[in-house]
Amino acid sequence: MWWGLVNFRPWREEEKEKKRELAKEIRERRLRMKQIKRQLKDLRNKKFRGRMSGLEATIRRVNIEGLGHTKDHIVTDRVKDFFKVETFQDIIQTTKRVDGELKSLGCFKTVNIVVDTVNNHENDTSYEVNIKVEELGRFFANFGVIAGKQENEVSLVGRGGLNNLQGGGERLELNTSRGSESSSESNVSLYAPIHSLPKGSGVFISGSKSSFSLPGLPLKQTDRGFWLGSEVKYSSTSLLSRLGLSYLQTKPDWQNLTEANRTRWHPGLESAGDKLLGSISNILSLNMLDSDLLPDYGLRASISHTVGLIPWSGLLAFQQIKLGFSSFLPLMKSISLGCSGHFSHTTQHCHTDQLDKIPMSFLVGCRSPMVFRGTETPEDYTGDMTAAVYKISLTSKLPLLQQNSLLCKHTRFHTFITGHTHRNDEAVKFSLKQFRHFFGLGFIGKVSDIGRFEINYTVPLDSTTCKPKLSFAFGTEFL
After folding, report:
1. What pLDDT score does 52 carry?
2. pLDDT band at 259; cut points 50, 70, 90
3. Is residue 431 pLDDT above 80, yes or no?
4. 58-135 maps to CATH 3.10.20.310
5. Shortest CA distance to 470 belongs to which of 377, 379, 374, 391?
């Protein structure tokens, strides 16, 4: 009964408050100690680098172990800079550079560089470099899943070939894929790196066969092609040039007409037939995005020019130019402002009765569901000679999720305003009245590095025949 007469609560609350203050003080002291230790470590490292930068050093020997099929001169051309060093700091910088260059040759699986002193008591500033490499296996094969050529398609791909054919990083490769929507593609290519240019630069020759349905059209196309090209890369910039000859077979897809409840005749059926086409294409691109599929910041831009040629006639069939950019600017910790645009224009040059049709595969690539958001492809669609799209968006991470959670890393919420227009003639003039504008919001994400998916609800902002709609899209091409 004495428990109710004596109140111990104030004493307990006071003790708890003292414990909390003591724990807080301990945490602050530990944090200060960590900061002091980190500053002392940085200071010691700075002093050590200062002493090393002025320490004289020379390389007397370079030992290379593990070379088999790789040509000797490819390696020696990169390690000869070791004999030009004058200080220990030069050795560190040269080691980093040579390590990166050897790994980029396409010849080695692993590269290990060790710098050691020379057993010479008369000169303590002499060093030797020991390089141990492991060459890539001559044969390789793997399987995977990629985004297919058609809309919302997933493809199973098999890849195999030979590495380091002539000892210079050359590669013979065979790829074959089969899609869930009946598309298929096979490609054999021979690639040779250009070691005098930045990493990733090289020349190639390839032959391919692909079969797929043209988006928005009741047509199937089989493309057999032969290509000769080169690619030059520097930092985030690349230039791809290709010269090719293609044999295109375009056939009606009667099953597509039946499933879509269309009439038996479609204007696109006039493009069915066989065509032999030469082409020259150049693509200049810049990619500084933090992620190719789910970017939060950065810039991506590209410009391409393609010339279609009629073989053995000296005539131009058409020219096509494409411009595109996407930029993302962080506004807050988890919100980004995006601005994107795309423009394509095709000009026809040959107007004879036999050669007046531009291959439909060059005219139907702009209406991807993650580019032309909000609209549906009309039933009488026959491609776009000119198309323009813009999009302004706000992208944010999902709320109430930890930053390192799997769902937070692979998903986003976005709201956007987009507009697009198109023409089927060769005119390039546009007015704001010709654009169809849409407001949308949705859920976006990526499936590993395979592709990006979007679930969007869009509402038209002007008086058009379009209605509010909920749509799903999957692929790698997006704006």
Report:
1. 64
2. low
3. no
4. yes
5. 374
Cα dist from 385 to 58, 293, 360, 388, whole Å: 64, 28, 10, 11
* pLDDT band per the 50, 70, 90 thresholds, residue 211: very high
Distances from the Cα of 28 to the Cαs of 22, 41, 129, 250, 474, in angstroms? 10, 20, 47, 73, 50
What pLDDT is recorded for position 10?
A: 57
Sign for the CA dihedral angle at 30, 35, 36, 42 comes to: positive
Phi, psi (rounded to 5 degrees) for 399: -70, 165
User: Cα–chain-centroid distance for residue 178?
Assistant: 21
Question: 49 versus 413: which is more confidently predicted?
Answer: 413
- How far is the C-alpha of 476 from the C-alpha of 371, rounded, in Å? 11
In tens, the pLDDT along 103-128 reads 888 889 999 999 888 876 555 678 88
- Give Cβ neighbours of residue 280 (< 8 Å, ≥ 6 apart): 241, 242, 243, 244, 306, 307, 309
Rounded Cα gap, residues 211 and 220, in angstroms? 7
Other CB atoms within 10 Å distance of the CB of residue 77: 13
Residue bearing tokens 């790196």: 193
Give residue limits of the domains in the chain: 1-52, 58-135, 139-475
- The hierarchical CATH code for the domain 139-475 is 2.40.160.50
- Which of 162, 226, 234, 236 lies closest to 192 in space, CA to CA? 162
Report DSSP letters for 143-207, one per residue: EEEEE-SSTT-EEEEEEEEEE-SSSSS-EEEEEEEEETTS-EEEEEEEEEE-TTSSTT-EEEEEE
Stated as kind and residue range, the H or E segment containing 34 is helix 9-53
Packing angle between helix 88-103 and helix 9-53, nearest 10 degrees?
A: 100
Q: Is the pTM of this model over 0.85?
A: no
Residue 327 DSSP SS3: strand
Q: Is the pLDDT of residue 133 over 80?
A: yes
Q: What's the pLDDT score for residue 242?
A: 96
Strands 108-117 and 171-179: unpaired
